[in-house]
Amino acid sequence: MNVLVVGAGSMGEWFARTMRDHTDATLAFTDTDSDAARRAAEAVGGRAVPTDTDGPFDVICIAVPMPVAEVAIEEYAPRATEAIVDVTGSMAAPLSAMAAAAPETQRASLHPLFAPENAPGNVAVVTDAGGDAVDVVVGALAAAGNDTFETTPEEHDEAMETVQAGAHAAVLAYALAAADVPERFHTPVSAGMADLVEQVTGGDAHVYADIQETFEGADRVAEAARRLADADRDGFAELYETLS
């Protein structure tokens, strides 16, 4: 199987390494940053190819930031002979773009629900048009120890509003609001929040910005915080008891 990974970031490299370790795939990378493509290819024993490469490739994996996913799919999908998949993080828009650009090709959207350095973990899967090539890809993810589960684009994207946009906004809002206090004053709750702040702020700012731009969960967090701030004693207790 001849695989092209479009996007030489950490997620693209993770996908390529998984395919290398659990299939007989030969791997190629392309990226607007040719040096990044070369480094990723060297890391997994593949090759770097220019962005205007003609291919064809058996499987193409789109591993670019969410805001440019549809553009990349439109450009590269016609070069896939068997399947096109993406690991961009959203599902509805990429799958729609795949169906438009490669209607006769196997198609699937894959979302690893973890940073690559924390693999293995849960991987959401939507198989829009299945077949042997998609089965090989999903099988490689499972063989790497990941828990793959089928969902729908709507269910996935709605869930991301809570588990990504909302969760990240809540953690970052706490970080923005928190005063700098000596560690000896921390409670188990505040210490746990501090750990979450460290985890979230240890990532790529642009990735987190893409999540906030794509999904709408942050607005609900802001509204909830305002409800708590505006509540009187009895109202606060009522909200607390509802959550309990």
UniProtKB/TrEMBL annotation:
The highest taxon in the source lineage is: Archaea
Q: What Gene3D superfamilies has UniProt attached to this entry? A: 6-phosphogluconate dehydrogenase C-terminal like domain, NAD(P)-binding Rossmann-like Domain
Question: Which GO biological process entries does UniProt record here?
Answer: tyrosine biosynthetic process
Read off the PROSITE patterns from this record. Answer: PDH_ADH
Query: Which molecular function terms from Gene Ontology are attached?
Result: NAD+ binding; prephenate dehydrogenase (NAD+) activity; prephenate dehydrogenase (NADP+) activity
Q: Which residues form the Prephenate/arogenate dehydrogenase domain?
A: 1-244
Quote the protein name from its UniProt record. Answer: Prephenate dehydrogenase/arogenate dehydrogenase family protein
Taxonomic lineage is: Archaea, Methanobacteriati, Methanobacteriota, Stenosarchaea group, Halobacteria
